[in-house]
Amino acid sequence: MNSRIPGFSRLSPAQRAGLLEERLGLAPGTLLPDLGLDAPDLSVLDRRSEGVVAALVLPLSVAPNFRVDDRDTFVPLVTEEPSVVAAASRGALLLREGEGIRTEVPPRRVAGQVQLRGVPEGACEAARQRVEEARDELARAAREAHPSWAAAGGDLVGLRAYGAGADLVALLVIDPGKAMGANLVTDLCERLAPRLEALSGGVAGLRIVTNAAEGPPVRASGSVEIRRLHRDPARAEAIADGVQAASRFAESDPRRAVTHNKGIFNGIDAVLQACGQDVRAVEAAGHAHAVRDGRVCPLSQWRVDGGRLVGTLEVPLAVGTVGGAIEGRAAIRAAFRILGIEASRDPVRLSAVTAACGLAGNLAALTALAGDGLLRGHLRLHAGNVAAALGASPAEVAAVGDLLRDEGGPVDRARVARLLASVRGGRDDS
Ligand code: MEV
Question: Where is the domain boundary, 371, 394, 412?
Answer without folding.
Answer: 371
